[in-house]
Amino acid sequence: MVSQYHSELIVKVAETRDKAAFADLFDHFAPRLKGYLMQKGADAAQAEEVVQDVMTTLWRKAHMFDPQKSSASTWLYRVARNRRIDLLRRDKSSDMDTDDPSLQPEAPPDVSTAMDARLRESRVRLALKALPPEQEAVVRLAFFTGLSHSEIADRIELPLGTVKSRIRLAFSRLRSALEADSAVDVD
């Protein structure tokens, strides 16, 4: 779903140096990565420095991304985590806490967990396709392209209340469909 969209954007950056795809990736991931890094203990300036480095790496090394091995977000968050560790190691004046959980190696992904995630994703994708077209369209605009409700209303020339109503109805239908599916935990 969303991760597939972002993976496709990284592939575009790798293959054609698509600046619009890169801009979409930057707009989506830069604030999230900064928040993640600050949550892990970086101050705002350090977080911004690492995010800039991560996004530069994305531009230069997009060809190294393999959508079969990980999602776009997993890849970028891993690069951010590794860059933060590099920054901490370089900063000799920093008192690095070797017990900091964010500095510990990540456990390799569990195969069954990855398979469960793919199954859930395919079930959610099917439920999304079962929505009426007007509801599917607003959900895709909101969650795949990251548009705000107001931006969606402007783009498809509908009142804001109609957009919000369609999203609410879509989520209600998705929840009902997914609650009936034992493979998807909706809580």
Automatic annotation (TrEMBL):
Per the UniProt record, one Pfam family is Sigma70_r2
List UniProt keywords, sorted A-Z: DNA-binding, Sigma factor, Transcription, Transcription regulation
Tell me where in this chain the RNA polymerase sigma-70 region domain is found: 25-92, 127-175
Domain of life from the UniProt record: Bacteria
Q: Name one GO biological process term.
A: DNA-templated transcription initiation
Which molecular-function annotations from GO does this UniProt entry contain?
DNA binding; sigma factor activity
**InterPro entries noted in UniProt:** RNA_pol_sigma-70-like (IPR039425), RNA_pol_sigma-70_dom (IPR014284), RNA_pol_sigma70_r2 (IPR007627), RNA_pol_sigma70_r4 (IPR007630), RNA_pol_sigma_r2 (IPR013325), RNA_pol_sigma_r3/r4-like (IPR013324), WH-like_DNA-bd_sf (IPR036388)
> Where do the segments described as Disordered lie?
90-112
What family, per the record?
Belongs to the sigma-70 factor family. ECF subfamily.
Identify this protein by name: Sigma-70 family RNA polymerase sigma factor
Organism, scientific name: Roseibium limicola
